[in-house]
Amino acid sequence: MAEAILMPKMGMTMTEGTVEEWYVKEGDPVKQGDPLFSASTDKITNDVECQEDGTILKILAQPGDTVEVSAVVGYIGQPGEAVPDAPAAGAAEPAPAPAEEAAAPAPEAAPAPAAGGHVKASPAAKKLAKEKGVDLSLVPATGPGGRIKIEDVEKFIEDQKNVKASPAAAKAAADLGVNLAECGTSGGRVMKDDVLKAAAPERESNDLPPQRVDTLRRSIAKNMTESWHTSPRVTFTHPVDMTAVIEMRNSLKDEMKRTGIKISFNHILMKACAQVLMEFPDVNGSFCDNMITHHKHANVGLAVAKGDGLIVPNVKCCEEKSLNQIADEMSKLVDKTRSGRIEMDDITGGTFTISSLGPYGITNFSPIINQPELAILGVCDIVETPVVRNHEIVILPMMNLCLTADHRVIDGVKASKFLQRLTQILENPYLMMA
Fold this sequence. Notes:
- By secondary structure, the protein is α+β, with helices and mostly antiparallel strands.
- It has helices at residues 123-132, 150-162, 167-176, 192-199, 215-230, 243-251, 253-259, 265-279, 323-338, 344-347, 412-427; strands at residues 3-6, 16-22, 29-30, 35-40, 45-49, 54-59, 66-68, 72-77, 233-241, 285-288, 291-294, 300-302, 304-306, 309-311, 314-315, 352-356, 375-389, 392-406.
- The strands form five sheets. A six-stranded mixed sheet has the order 9-18-17-16-12-15. A four-stranded antiparallel sheet has the order 1-8-6-3, with no helix packed on it. It has a four-stranded antiparallel sheet with strand order 5-4-2-7, with no helix packed on it.
- A hairpin with a 2-residue loop joins strand 17 (375-389) and strand 18.
């Protein structure tokens, strides 16, 4: 008997998956452990392996189809085995046939042909139209095959008599080939503007056909909407002098060459944030059902661009790791994210997120909290800025830190103290060794 191939559940929160690519086609023999297709969730893409030896009998879900977890995407079995009748995965059920035929609608007048086009009309209709100066292309036809009858011309003439129109409107209608009876009116009388509006071609839409966004963008939209309605958020901005951090990073260049591990400003920020998170447990927590949960470790995530979306892998236990370890782990996570090899464990369990827009020249922004975390740090560009120090104006490399905090737990004083402490460590990075 044919066995169903199901969309697997690849994460606790997964409800649907998208078939990205089939590696086999119908009729191909497969063995247990062979990859059958790749499936993507809102965060990751994984290969789905064959669970038994057999032959691919039927593929239901095509590449690009999004189906629910445990939905049937195909069938495997022995050659010649029957496949259960089933619609293509994700396809809509056909509409049931009506119980009986509906009565045929009464024939309606065919629309008038375009002005200047060929007009089918009876000889009597043509003769009357010529005598009365009627443009047959404006006359709706009720005859067989869209043929204009003399009665159609008579009705058209009568309709025109009953239309109140200004002299300018009547002249414009004659010049433009517009049926006055079909013009919109201004106060019950057809005016020239009504005729011109009726004669104008419909403006072409400026919109391209709408497209369904990919799984990642749908997930981002869902999560951001949920966060927006969950956390009463406030963003606090604090400037920091990056002179010491820049000097520290420059002093590590030889070590970076030796180890092959490149330490960025983001890695230094992750290390500094982990230390401060241990000092401010509320910021390193989560809140649900009027209960706050404090986390033992600082699992610091860094937002990584993937296509036109963002994924946030996190380094676990950042507070226990050296700068080299954080840089090495984060670099590997970035590579896995951009190559589509990121795993569910890499993107779950985060307690705090860093989002850096400094490379894009941004000097201030309000990041949205990555639920169920309670805060997110926006990192801005380092800008040479005139600053007053000891009653003198000096030029310093200044950077804004933008902390968006959930005000249910983190009030203004707590957020300010967190930023003050983080600034203190960044302006004296040797405190990370204390």
